[in-house]
Design brief:
Length: 326
């Protein structure tokens, strides 16, 4: 179950799919055996035109009778997009907005939480918020579509890389009429990614996730955040499918210089001693990893790194990752 954990995002964290598989971009040259960084990021932002109908990168067509104002978020990408557009959800099941670079804890606490958690949000509760639009993860919330059809509009999203995330932002900006905000958010993210690429580190990096001594490796193609890492560092980790994983011995053999650790926990950040890095410290191989020996292990906010997947979350990831990789 844990091998699948980072593909799930939920209040209950483990056993909840984060993202479906998505194709990573090609091009460029790989570093020390890592994934290719791909072509340099284009900082050009095309104008966004307001629209009542959009067709996203996955071929899903969404139509709203008027610009949606009451939007219910069943996936953190939705909260991220709304924040970029200067909006707040009518209700959410994500803790992302409590982050200081979103709304902060006090303001986020005023937003209703959808009962049922990420895996099983209650349809009646969703409709009670009188939404114009509901945004959820296709492989998790697609089953809700029949019950939501008619009373509201359901938009199933499934980002596989940062380009998908940008595309979804542009589409939502078109639907809401917040085109200038969407263009500004895209421009800021593209500029930040392009700048990070120019100072690409030759250090070997790794993102691991888990809740206890069990862990998984985040890989490009299966994980939006991991897809950014080859652009800014050596990232020699490739997807092994849903059931595949890496052993501690394999990680040790890669001479990882910088480790990013996502502790998936219930009810907020894990306390010192209960974090994944603390649990892994019990493994004798852990202390032999260069990043561990040199004090370059970084416990990161899983709400942002694992779940956000929008331009604001990914911008925070770039800030934190590039600082750690210097």
């Amino acid at each position: 179950m844990l091998r699948k954990a980072r593909r799930w995002t939920a209040a209950a964290v483990l056993g909840t799919l984060l993202v479906g598989c998505g194709a990573s971009t090609g091009g460029g040259e790989a570093g020390k055996g890592g994934a290719a960084p791909g072509p340099a990021t284009d900082v050009t932002v095309k104008p966004i035109t307001a629209a009542r109908t959009v067709t996203d990168a996955k071929g899903v067509t969404v139509t709203t009778a008027a610009p949606p104002r009451r939007i219910v978020c069943l996936v953190a990408l939705c909260d991220d997009m709304l924040a970029e557009l200067g909006m707040v959800p009518a209700a959410t099941n994500s803790a992302l907005l409590a982050h200081e670079k979103f709304l902060g804890k006090e303001r986020a606490a005023k937003i209703p939480v959808v009962p049922g958690g990420f895996l099983s949000p209650e349809t009646e509760a969703i409709l009670s918020y009188e939404p114009d639009l509901v945004i959820g993860l296709e492989d998790t919330h697609g089953k809700l579509a029949p019950a939501l059809k008619g009373p509201t509009v359901f938009w199933p999203v499934q980002p596989g890389n940062w380009q998908d995330s940008v595309g979804y932002l542009r589409d939502l900006a078109a639907l809401t009429g917040r085109t200038k905000q969407g263009e500004a958010a895209e421009k800021a993210f593209r500029a930040k990614l392009a700048a990070a690429e120019k100072t690409r580190s030759d250090k070997t990096a790794l993102i691991i996730f888990g809740s206890d001594e069990n862990f998984g490796v985040a890989t490009p193609g299966n994980d939006v955040t991991a897809g950014l890492l080859p652009k800014i560092a050596d990232y020699p980790w490739k997807s092994r499918g849903v059931e595949g994983t890496y052993s501690m011995e394999e990680i040790l053999a890669r001479d990882v210089d910088v480790l990013f650790v996502e502790t998936l926990s219930f009810g907020g950040p894990a306390a010192p001693g209960a974090r994944l890095s603390d649990k892994l410290a019990e493994n004798p191989l852990w202390s032999k990893i260069p990043a561990v020996r040199n004090g370059d292990v970084h416990e990161v906010d899983a709400e942002v790194w694992a779940k956000g997947r929008g331009t604001r979350s990914l911008g925070i990831v770039l800030d934190e990752a590039t600082a750690a990789l210097r």
